[in-house]
Amino acid sequence: MSSEVIVDRGPARPAADATDRSAGPNPLLQVDDLVKHFPVRSGLLRRTAGHVQAVNGVSFEVAGGRTLGLVGESGSGKSTTARLVTRLITPTSGAVRFDGVDVLASRGRQLKALRKRIQMVFQDPFGSLDPRMPVLTAIGEPLEVHGIASGRAKAHRVGELLETVGLQAGDMHKYPHQFSGGQAQRIGIARALATEPDMIVCDEAVSALDVSVQAQILNLLKRLQREFGLAYLFIAHDLNVVRYVSDDICVMYLGEIVERGPADEVFAHPRHPYTQALLDAIPVYDPVRAKARERGTAMGEVPSPSSPPPGCRFHPRCPLAFERCPDEVPRQAPVGRGHWAACHLHDRKEATA
Length: 353
Description:
The chain contains 11 helices and 12 strands. The protein is α/β, with parallel strands linked by helices. The longest helix is centred in the middle third of the chain and has 18 residues, at about 210-230. It folds into 2 domains: about 25-265, Rossmann fold (3-Layer(aba) Sandwich); about 270-350, no CATH class. Strand 4 and strand 5 form a beta hairpin. The protein has helices at about 80-85, 110-115, 135-145, 150-165, 180-195, 210-230, 240-245, 265-270, 275-280, 285-295, 345-350, and strands spanning about 25-40, 45-65, 65-70, 95-100, 100, 120, 200-205, 230-235, 250-255, 255-260, 330-335, 340. An 8-stranded mixed beta sheet has the order 6-7-8-3-9-10-12-11, with helices on both faces. A 4-stranded antiparallel beta sheet has the order 2-1-4-5.
């Protein structure tokens, strides 16, 4: 029996109009110059000896009903960005606006209302579920917190949510250990849907699952997006997964966005050496193509975010680096319709054109 997974891609979505951040004229989520530096403390007095620059000047937008993929190696700042956007942690500086509301300045009822509209699905489905709570309590808790349903109405709504994500209503009386990883992630998605959000942040939501289960969860997310008009901020390190679910893509390296644009354009014409290195890292079965890819592969290890390289942060690993790269921070330059890259190679081409 073949192990190939057939994925339902659904109807194609129209491309967004080209704007400064490729999300359309009225973004649902707008992130501007977001910074998060974690202090490094040492000594008996726990004095600050430095900072880990986890996120450094990140900006992007997500339009309603669309998916922005955030991709990069481990340690690039993707998950920290997700927690900043949902205000699970507080940024060092920057701005986050959701449907015109300042997320970072919100307090009390306004913040509670925002949390109802922005939900999150975590990487580890079992780690995000309390093993002592039955599914009814895990999914029903946000229903009670936000005054949506209680009592019998809550149980009825939990049953509907479980059926929406492909489980059975009777599963509400089970505990997390009684489910497989894919089923547990469906429970996490049902919990995120409970408050009827406008946007869901998926932080490596399928990376811990088997490939066949990944396909099922991705198809579920796309179906829910079509049915409920959801927007997704989809974070992953698997480029094939990101390409499948995303309308637009931001590529992160060492806390910064180095390339952004429409998904098909970024994959067809990568304009930053790091994006090309990520694409080249995808396994191929042709030895000739694999050998050719080795010449453009990123060199060495990712530098420490507590001591990032000067200038372009990718230059110590870049096979195309030249004398300007260690000295100047590259600016975001347009390289196509709605397509931007932060690389001195494009500045040099513009100067000589």
